[in-house]
């Protein structure tokens, strides 16, 4: 049995539960239970506050954990990043009152900075040769300059709207973050095997992200030109249609290029174009 530490509630919780469902891990939804075993896979989920996840993995209370990279780096615990998960993307940035004139990082010399991330902040300041004071608070960081608690802040930014509503501007991006799967460095061979199966399934879900399955009918004369437009995994599948001189073509394409490719396909005489979602892809 592999024990996975997951945030009990908050931003990471929803995305993590969705990932479990996509990789076919069923959990009985017993409310307020802090440890739940899967009914169809040898894992159990331990629900914790995100702050406690890195240490629980380092200590072996949990074998692996899903946590924001920001929290993992801040805690500086002995665990390894096994996989980047691509959700809960944000950045850790320095921000100052918007009317301040900012010419560079030397602005922070001698200043007081409110943050929940003292370790990451102090490491950055030291590297830049800046001496400033970090005032540690655990939440509502953006309000600190407005109430005279600090001159600046160092906190999570995503859309930037919290900064705007608190009359702040982002001036330095110190780190980019996303959810990561972290693991205890000394997993037994049995646990490592379960983790490998888990990561294989995550890979299949990630490979399918942003990809679409496309089916179309094409005149045989234009098949070569259409193949040149379709960026298939290996090469497109081509099957003859009952209609003389026509074929059905199947391929996979990146969603981002969808409109650009569709235009070219139509001009090459493609008809009956169907675009379908792909759930999983095993290469
Ligand atoms: N606005 C955001 N956009 C995207 N990701 C975010 C955002 N805010 C936070 N995150 C990411 O989600 C993680 C969890 O954020 P959340 O606000 O749920 O944490 P928390 O309040 O510390 O929760 P807990 O009660 O578990 O300590 C953060 O560490 C960060 O990696
Ligand atoms: O750039 P934005 O898109 O505005 O996001 C940034 C905000 O999101 C997080 O807070 P959250 O909303 O999770 O509230 P919290 O204080 O309860 O953690 C974070 O602490 C920032 O305050
Ligand atoms: Mg927290």
From TrEMBL:
Co-factor requirement: Mg(2+)
Residue span, ATP phosphoribosyltransferase catalytic domain: 49-203
Localization per Swiss-Prot or TrEMBL: Cytoplasm
Keywords: Amino-acid biosynthesis, ATP-binding, Cytoplasm, Glycosyltransferase, Histidine biosynthesis, Magnesium, Metal-binding, Nucleotide-binding, Transferase
InterPro entries in UniProt: ATP-PRT_HisG_long, ATP_PRibTrfase_cat, ATP_PRibTrfase_CS, ATP_PRibTrfase_HisG, HisG_C, N-reg_PII-like_a/b, N-reg_PII/ATP_PRibTrfase_C
EC class of the enzyme, as a word: transferase
Family under the similarity heading: Belongs to the ATP phosphoribosyltransferase family. Long subfamily.
Function of the protein: Catalyzes the condensation of ATP and 5-phosphoribose 1-diphosphate to form N'-(5'-phosphoribosyl)-ATP (PR-ATP). Has a crucial role in the pathway because the rate of histidine biosynthesis seems to be controlled primarily by regulation of HisG enzymatic activity.
Protein name (record): ATP phosphoribosyltransferase
Organism this protein belongs to: Paludibacter jiangxiensis
């Amino acid at each position: 049995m592999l024990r996975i530490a997951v945030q009990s509630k908050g931003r990471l919780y929803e995305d993590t539960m969705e990932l479990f469902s996509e990789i076919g891990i069923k959990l009985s939804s017993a409310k307020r239970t802090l440890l739940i075993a899967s009914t169809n896979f040898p894992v159990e989920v331990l629900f914790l506050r995100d702050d406690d996840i890195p240490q629980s993995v380092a200590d072996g209370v949990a074998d692996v954990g899903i946590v924001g990279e920001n929290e993992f780096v801040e805690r500086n615990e002995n665990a390894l990043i096994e996989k980047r998960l691509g959700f809960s993307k944000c950045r850790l940035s320095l921000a100052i009152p918007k009317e301040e004139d900012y010419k560079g990082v030397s602005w922070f010399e001698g200043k007081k900075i409110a943050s929940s991330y003292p370790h990451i902040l102090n490491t950055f300041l030291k590297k830049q040769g800046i001496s400033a004071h970090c005032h540690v608070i655990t939440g509502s960081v953006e309000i600190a300059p407005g109430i005279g608690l600090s001159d600046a802040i160092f906190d999570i930014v995503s859309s930037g709207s919290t900064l705007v509503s608190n009359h702040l501007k982002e001036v330095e991006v110190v780190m980019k973050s996303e959810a990561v799967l972290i693991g205890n460095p000394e997993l037994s061979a049995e646990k490592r095997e379960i983790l490998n199966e888990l990561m294989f399934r995550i890979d299949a879900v990630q490979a399918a992200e942003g990809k679409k399955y496309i089916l179309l009918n094409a005149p045989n004369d234009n098949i070569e030109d259409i193949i040149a437009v379709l960026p298939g995994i290996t090469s497109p599948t081509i099957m003859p249609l009952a209609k003389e001189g026509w074929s059905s073509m199947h391929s996979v394409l990146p969603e981002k290029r969808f409109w650009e490719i569709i235009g070219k396909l139509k001009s090459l005489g493609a008809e009956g174009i169907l675009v379908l979602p792909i759930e999983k892809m095993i290469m």
